[in-house]
Structures are given as C-alpha cells and as structure tokens.
Amino acid sequence: MKIPFTRWPEDLAARYRALGYWQDLPLTDILTRHADSDRIALIDGDQQLNYRQLNQAADRLAASLLRRGLAVGDTALVQLGNQAEFYIVFFALLKIGVAPVNALFSHQRHELTGYARQISPCVLIADRQHRLFTDDVFVDELKQSCPRLSVCLFHHQEQGDSSLSQMTAFPADGFSPSPSAADEVAFFQLSGGSTGTPKLIPRTHNDYYYSIRGSVDICRFDRDTRFLCALPAAHNYPLSSPGALGVFYAAGQVVLASDPSATTCFGLIEQHQVNVTALVPPAVSLWIQALQDQSDRRSLASLRLLQVGGARLSPTLAASIPAVFGCQLQQVFGMAEGLVNYTRLDDDEQRIFTTQGRPICADDEVWVADAEGNPLPSGSIGRLMTRGPYTFRGYFQSPDHNAQAFDAKGFYCSGDLVSIDPQGYITVHGREKDQINRGGEKIAAEEIENLLLTHPAIIDAALVAMEDDLMGEKSCAFIITRETVRPVELRRFLRAEGVAEFKLPDRFEALPSLPLTAVGKVDKKQLRLRLRQKNAS
Ligand code: AMP
Ligand code: DBH
C-alpha cells in the first residue's frame, strides 16, 4: 500500500534526480551507512549509543513490529520526548515503511486526536510519563476512533507486550529492511498551521534526505560535530536543519537535552564539549541572562556555532551573540513544509545579523508576490512563494486548503512577508497567515478561536499576537461574552478540551464587539494596534 500524497510533476522530479538532489535512497541510509561504526552517535543522560548499537536497536524494534503485523504503507502516531527512543523508533518505523506523525511532547488530547483522525494510525508509540498515557483512558478512546490501531507501545513501561523496551530487546534475527520507496512518503511533518485543524506535511525520503545533506554541507557538520539537541526532537529544525539527522549523516554525536534552559544545557555543553546547537530567540535571551549572572563563562567554551531560528531574531540581539557566546551565529529561517534558508558561515557579519539567510539549493525557486499573486520588483516586501526539490506540493488530504496555499504552478505561499536582496538573501518582515509565533511555537488562531466559541459564555473570539520582549509574541484573545467569565475559567476550559499549554491565550480582553474590516472580516490589525497602544500607555 502506498500513502496518497501530492507528487512533484514528472519534469521537475526528473530534473531533481538528474542534478543529484534526489538519490533514491531511503532516509534509513543516514544510519545504515555507519552501521559498522563504534563511534558514539547519541548521548541521552547516562545512556550512550554508538552507531552500531543505534542501528541494531532500530532493527530489533523494526523486526518486532513486523511480527506484530505492520506493513509498508501503514501509519504511526508517535509521541516521545527528547530521548534516545525517539530516534530508535523513527528509524525502526522507516525501516519497515511505516510512516509516523511525530507529535510534540507538549501536545495533548486535542492535537493527538486531530492527527489520529487524519492518518488513522496502525500503531501508537507513546510515553507512560506523559499526562495522557499514565492510564489507558485516552488509548481506549483512540482505539475506538481508529479501527486500524492494532499495536500500542509505551516508553517507561517495563513489563508486558506493550512495553517499548521489551519490544526493542528481541533479537532481529533474519530481519531485512523494507522501507517505502524513496519517492514515497517517509513520514509526516507537522505544520505550525493557520487553520482550524493542524495540517500534516507528507515528506518523502528523497526530498527530506536532500534537505539534510544540503544542510550538512552548508553548516559543515562532520564527524567532529557534537550537537546539543535542546529543542523538541520531533521539530523540523532540530531534526533536519541539519539537526540530529544531519549529525547522524555526518557521523557526529548528538547530545540530548530535556529542555533548552541554561540550567539544563550549560552543564551538558561543558561535559560533552558540545560545539554546535540550535536555539529559538527567547532561549538565546535566557542564555545571555544566565551568562551575566555567572562569573564563569567557561562552560560554553567548546561552542563554535550557534544556530538561531524559528522566529524573528532582532538585529541587536543577533549582533551581541558572537561576543557574548564567543562563537559564530547562523540564522536559520525554515519551515516544516520544506524551504530552509541559512546565513553562510563565511558571510560577513552585517549579513548574518540582519538577514535570515538564503535557500539551501540553487534550484529552490523563491520569489515575492503581491496580494494578487503577481511578482513584485526586487527588494519589495511581499508574500514568499517557493517550490523546489524539498518543498512539499500539498498538505495531506486537504484539497481545499491546498487550493489556497499553492498557485497554479505549484509554488507554496508560506504566509511570510519577506524581501529578497540581489544576492538572494531573505529578510522576514512579518506574516500574513493567521498565526501567532510564540517564541518559535506556532499557534493557529482559528484553532483556538473555534475552541473558545464552544464555551457557553462566549459569543465571538479573535486571537491575535501581542508583542513581548522575551517571547517576541504572546497571544491575546479578544472575546465578546454573554456574561462575565474569568481568564482562569477560560484557561481551565481550554485545558479540559485537551489543548497544548503553549496555545492557551496569555491574555484575555473582553470587548463589546469586534472591529470589522470593510469586507466584514475581523480587523486583527486594529486589535494588534489596540494592544500596542495599551502597552505603550
Ligand atoms: P512551521 O510551519 O511550524 O514549520 O513554521 C515555519 C514558520 O516559522 C515560517 O513560515 C516562519 O513564519 C517562521 N520562522 C521560522 N524561522 C524563522 C526565522 N528565522 N525568522 C522569522 N520567522 C521564522
Ligand atoms: O520554524 C520552523 O519551522 C523552522 C525553523 C528553522 C524549521 O522548520 C526549520 C529551521 O527547518
């Protein structure tokens, strides 16, 4: 069985192959190419796995899953935190052609249910230490709604046939990998989204592997790379830009951190002589604060490169990085949908401080459109349009949304407002999509508005971004209510609906009515302005 998805047109696919971007290798090659190496691949607390051990663990789990009846073209819902098991499971599933959705550990019932509804998973792999899986209530719910769900495995469950560690302990005798074809779906990436239901992004082996190799090249990852993965492992950025998969490709070493706090990370950096890590801007600010409070800066002495991306980095903060951290800055502007831009290691400082870099590939086609979709002259600010060898061609089973998100030639409109300079470097000026970027964590306004509307006291709701010194943006829900309702009550309500914590509005503002634009849509520009004026006064 093949998973249906929007393919690249034949002529482009042929071109991407001819130019060597698509090499028709499965993503599992990232690991199997080092299968005989006893170099350390992964450090997770006290646990260290070399490449051979990592590959064998994936083989053993893959063999067990095959015995449990899984087959090529099946799908999986996975939720694991920053632990070695995340990668073992990822490679195991890919080795047998099962395509996972890797939910973030911060996701709750609402998000997981949404993903499960879309892929109808055959296997669930989750963590007993996650709130949702301490008992079987939610698992039973999933089984009810997902008729194909036949295998449930749990990390942090030591006994029984649903113990992940037991399944990974069986020998893999006679196992031979059967990944899906390289131009088929390898797994689904998560979109930050701007619509009511979070969309899934089919990523093929060919396109994703190319984005990883291209990234490794640009960032010069090699066997001496020691990368701290402090952002959520499932996120596209620390997974593939070049991220942990880039490190594995290059035979370097991944050190896992449970969170990006200075308290967690500084010790790990010193202990394992980490030389590169990937952060979002708020984490950079917190690290700088921590360094100021700390007379001894030697803990970061091994750091050579600090990648910053996921949200806007102010030029001022950017310019302070080299001196404060004693290392180089690289800006990364990427998206789970594909296109990733990097400042290059030998770019001059001005460019590194003030732009978000340029695309990985010479065959990334990037241009700027006006509101009607027509190209704008060079240097103008407008909508980012792109297609290329690792940019998807359609969200999973979302024909209506795809009709809006792509133009007739298959260019994806990311919803970002950018300008492109004559050398092809992109600067992000803002956003058109209805999304809040809360320090790199994306919130689709409509998703939260729809949930608020189901509360009996709420007549109408609009979620907008409000400026925040640390996070860049936080969220404010403007509401029209039938009766007074306290923010704590609304947050409790959203939590009970199973929404991830980072999506809960940071502030609620009751209004008698919502301002409307000339065409009768909620005027969010005016709402944002109102917040700015209020903050200024
Ligand atoms: P997602 O769809 O969740 O993968 O998020 C991708 C979006 O994050 C982009 O379309 C941008 O809006 C935002 N983003 C990522 N990196 C940067 C960056 N370096 N500067 C500004 N915005 C960014
Ligand atoms: O924000 C993102 O989604 C992102 C940022 C940097 C991304 O997907 C990436 C690099 O690959």
From TrEMBL:
Please report the stretch or stretches of sequence annotated as the AMP-dependent synthetase/ligase domain: 36-396
- Annotated Pfam families: AMP-binding, AMP-binding_C
Q: Name one GO biological process term.
A: siderophore biosynthetic process
Family annotation (NCBIfam families): DHB_AMP_lig (TIGR02275), PRK10946.1 (NF008192)
Identify the pathway.
Siderophore biosynthesis
User: What is the official name of this protein in its record?
Assistant: 2,3-dihydroxybenzoate-AMP ligase
What are the recorded GO MF terms, alphabetically? 2,3-dihydroxybenzoate--[aryl-carrier protein] ligase
Q: Tell me the organism.
A: Biostraticola tofi
Domain AMP-binding enzyme C-terminal positions:
447-521
Its ancestry begins with: Bacteria, Pseudomonadati, Pseudomonadota, Gammaproteobacteria, Enterobacterales
- Which keywords describe this protein according to UniProt? Ligase
**Superkingdom of origin organism:** Bacteria
Coiled coil ranges (UniProt) are none
Q: Which PANTHER family match?
A: LONG-CHAIN-FATTY-ACID--COA LIGASE, SURFACTIN SYNTHASE SUBUNIT 1
Q: Which InterPro entries match?
A: AMP-bd_C, AMP-bd_C_sf, AMP-binding_CS, AMP-dep_synth/lig_dom, ANL_N_sf, ATP-dep_AMP-bd_enzyme, DHB_AMP_lig
